[in-house]
Predict the 3D structure of the following.
Amino acid sequence: MSEQQPAPDADGAAHVVAPSACHGATPVGEPSDLTEPVRRFVCSVRTMAFVSLASFVLVLWVFTRTARAQVWDERGRMSTGASARAWVHIVDPLTYITIGSVATLLAAFVVIALARQRAGLALAAILVVGGANVTTQLFKAYWPTSPHLWDNSLPSGHSTVAMSLSLAAILVAPSGARRWLVPFAAFGATFVGAGTIVGHWHRPADVWAAFLVCLLWSAGAIGLVLKLQLRRHTRDAKYALRPAAGVVGSMTAGLIFVGLGVRPLDADLKLAEAIVALGVTGLLAAFVVAWVSAAADDNLG
């Protein structure tokens, strides 16, 4: 494929005109895996911000302002049990998530972005990790439950760390590599998020809220970098398989959990609650990772 030539815009600045889901037609000879309206929806930072904010507010309100949802959430937390082997391999590793380990990984992502001469992506990684985790800690500390059946634990701090680092890795990665990172990022976020439920550290809604906070900050980071960067870059418009790749990563984490001895505590009702609690967690992780990956490719290159 020939290299695209810069074209002047209304202000006279040169921008690279590249095939895009949002800003142009699919190149001749390259199959389109999504219709144009769906592509516009996928790559829209405004849509991502609206969906994530509305979903977070809904989860926050339902699970901290209604007694029935609070009771179900607590039952979801207690729906599974873990063998000693599962505890060692799933719950114990969560203790290694510390401020030092997070800072080390974030510094590595910043170095990768700067090595690619993409300072904007380094800024995006810092915003996602820093902003999402500060937001989580503020809500955990100051948002009350009403009726006050128990103290608020939403969003989950460990889940926020895992998802924000996964998304930061995707943002700083080269465009061609992002889709290959999707299953690994979904696996990591699911493993930690579901692990906090299995270890009875957090309720399911705590984890879901954490993922949505990370999605919201990702939308803001991508939007900011899109405004700051001086030129567009070649984009990878192969979006359709990313959700499936994310589900594969999440399912792999689930299979590992089952193989290590995670089971419903008792009765069919606990089985249904465990499936909902852990299943929605995995699907949401896959959805968030796939969406950010696609939006980053389309907007940032």
